[in-house]
Write a structure and sequence with these properties.
globular
Length: about 270
């Protein structure tokens, strides 16, 4: 028996996102998360950033044709069992990726990245309408934080009632499920997962650790991995939340600013 016949390929997950040169978020965080989940991670690069623990010093968007070529190269030959999107930066890229996702028979996890952990803008203001009308309608799961919720819906969430209102407004744009991430609210972090019928409140302890760079990318990627492995959405999101909570607890300092979560926390031996 040949080696290729004896060893089946792992589940394949594709990230469509920007690069973080500091390795804490973006494509780099996605691929680390995919490895930690036992899947084969693949990437479509949308932008290059000069980024470190202090913030984003520069960003350079790739042309839409380069993004489309990368996507088709991977999907047409290797295939995918889930896709995760992150930084798309412009209306042209949002619309290109939305078109590609619509033609792909795999669940899509959309992290509608608007700003970095340090407050640096990563999505052009004119692209917001394309996110609402083109990208969210093709999402299996959308995972906005409260800043992104405000950008997309105009709702400024201050409590769990506001999270329900925001989730309903986001579902009106067309995703099948929404995770409204409430980690910026006071108290223990709580997220709301809903499809408009079911509501799942996901609670976790708050860890006293400022090194949380990459949490949003990591959660969305972990959800995509678990969907690729055959889990249903509520199971996938719960498992992803547990993984990210552990990664936050193990986050470590790098540079002079905010360090990353530890994507390898479950297997760390040193």
């Amino acid at each position: 028996m040949s080696l290729s016949a004896a060893v089946p390929a792992p589940a394949r997950v594709l990230t469509v996102a920007g690069s973080d040169s500091g390795g804490g978020a973006g494509i780099q965080a996605d691929l680390k998360t995919m490895l930690a989940h036992g899947t084969h991670g693949m990437s479509v690069l949308t932008a290059v950033t000069a980024q470190n623990s202090l913030g984003v010093q520069g960003a350079w968007e790739l042309p839409a044709e380069a993004v489309r070529a990368q996507y088709r190269s991977v999907v047409d030959d290797i295939g995918v069992q889930a896709v995760k999107t992150g930084m798309l930066s412009s209306a042209a890229l949002v619309e290109t990726v939305a078109e590609l996702l619509a033609a792909t028979d795999a669940p899509a996890v959309v992290d509608p990245v608007g700003v970095s952990k340090h407050g640096d803008p990563l999505l052009a203001a004119e692209a917001l309408d394309s996110v609402r009308t083109r990208l969210l309608p093709v999402a299996t799961v959308a995972t906005p934080n409260l800043d992104e919720v405000a950008q997309l819906t105009g709702i400024h969430v201050e409590d769990e009632t506001g999270m329900r209102r925001a989730a309903a407004a986001l579902l009106d744009f067309g995703p099948r499920w929404v995770v409204v991430k409430g980690g910026h609210l006071p108290g223990d972090p709580v997220d709301l997962l809903t499809d408009g019928t079911e509501q799942h409140w996901l609670r976790a302890p708050r860890h006293d650790n400022r090194h949380t760079h990459g949490t949003g990318c990591t959660l969305a990627s972990a959800i995509a991995c678990r969907l690729a492995l055959g889990q249903d959405v509520p199971t996938a999101v719960r498992g992803a939340k547990a993984y990210v909570t552990g990664a936050i607890a193990a986050g470590f300092p790098l540079g002079a600013g905010i360090g990353p979560v530890d994507h390898g926390w479950r297997s760390r031996t040193v």
